[in-house]
Specification:
Radius of gyration: 19 Å
Oligomer: single chain
Helix content: 40-55%
Distance between the termini: 55 Å
Number of helices: 10
């Protein structure tokens, strides 16, 4: 058995094209503010990619770069200004932030209607309540889109999520519940992880441990979504041992080219969604 490769790059390209067409056909004005604090090289690459993605679909991007030594109040003042700027429909503060800045406080300061990362308490609360009209975290949203656009049935399936972060694991669980899956959450402290993962019809791995999941931990015919990304001398690796797991799974996302491209695509989709919602209120 050889798994179908779930091409997140191709699906993301399709979503981007849909966004571009809607913006052009309806004359929608979208503005995304991206804020980077410090000189973290990986963060700079992510910001650059997000700015380019905006340009490709017709979203105007506004980049704000603050020194690593910037005070928390300086960042809060910038967010307040962006909250009140009618040209800005989405605000993204690139994480992680320097240790002297309270990440939770910064996320809470963003207007929930402009919180295109979907991390604030109000948007997370709406997601918990099962609401669909919500700016949801981008990576879990991308996972749902990969499954749906690949015609993979979610309803009634047993989904096991390895990872409990606020960015991926927890919101992914709520989204899968919303799609009528039966959900189990496992994590780094789960005893006998293999006994849990081997029950999954859909296995979502977002634990941040390189190649943690091997073939012995996966049920034959399962769908495997690998959210992990690790830079090694051999190239990028995921949380799943792709070579061996792809021989027993029915479908699997690669690293790179799986979930990663979907995250940015869903960021663009959230920005368009926020712009349309704010336009309706004006």
């Amino acid at each position: 058995m050889s798994a179908v490769i779930l091409d997140g790059k191709a699906i993301a390209a399709s979503i981007r094209q849909e966004i571009k067409q809607e913006i052009e056909s309806k004359g929608i004005k979208c503005g995304l503010a991206v804020v980077l604090v410090g000189e973290d090289e990986a963060s700079k690459v992510y910001v650059k990619n997000k700015i380019k993605a905006c340009s490709d679909v017709g979203i105007k991007s506004y980049a704000y770069y603050l020194q690593k030594t910037a005070e928390e109040d300086e960042l809060l003042q910038l967010i307040d200004a962006l909250n009140n700027d009618s040209n800005i429909h989405g605000i993204l503060v690139q994480l992680p932030l320097p240790s002297h800045i309270n990440e939770k406080k910064i996320i809470s300061a963003i207007n929930p209607q402009k919180d295109v990362d979907g991390f604030c308490a109000e948007n997370m609360g709406k997601l918990f309540l099962g609401e669909t009209d919500v700016l949801a975290p981008c990576t879990p949203s991308g996972i749902i889109e990969i499954l749906k656009r690949s015609n993979i049935e979610i309803s009634g399936k047993h989904a096991v999520i390895v990872g409990r972060s606020n960015i991926v694991g927890k919101p992914a669980a709520f989204m899968m519940l919303r799609e009528n899956a039966t959900v189990t959450i496992a994590h780094s402290k789960t005893k006998d992880l293999k006994s849990i993962t081997s029950l999954a019809d859909i296995l979502i791995v977002a634990v941040g441990k390189q190649e943690l999941i091997d073939a012995s931990m996966v049920k034959k015919g399962a769908v495997v979504i690998d959210v992990g990304i690790h830079r090694t001398e051999q190239g990028l690796k995921g949380d799943v041992k792709f070579g061996e797991v792809s021989k027993i799974a029915s479908a699997i996302t690669p690293v790179p080219g799986g979930v990663g491209p979907m995250t940015i695509a869903m960021l663009l989709q959230n920005t368009l969604k926020a712009a349309k919602a704010l336009m309706e209120k004006q």
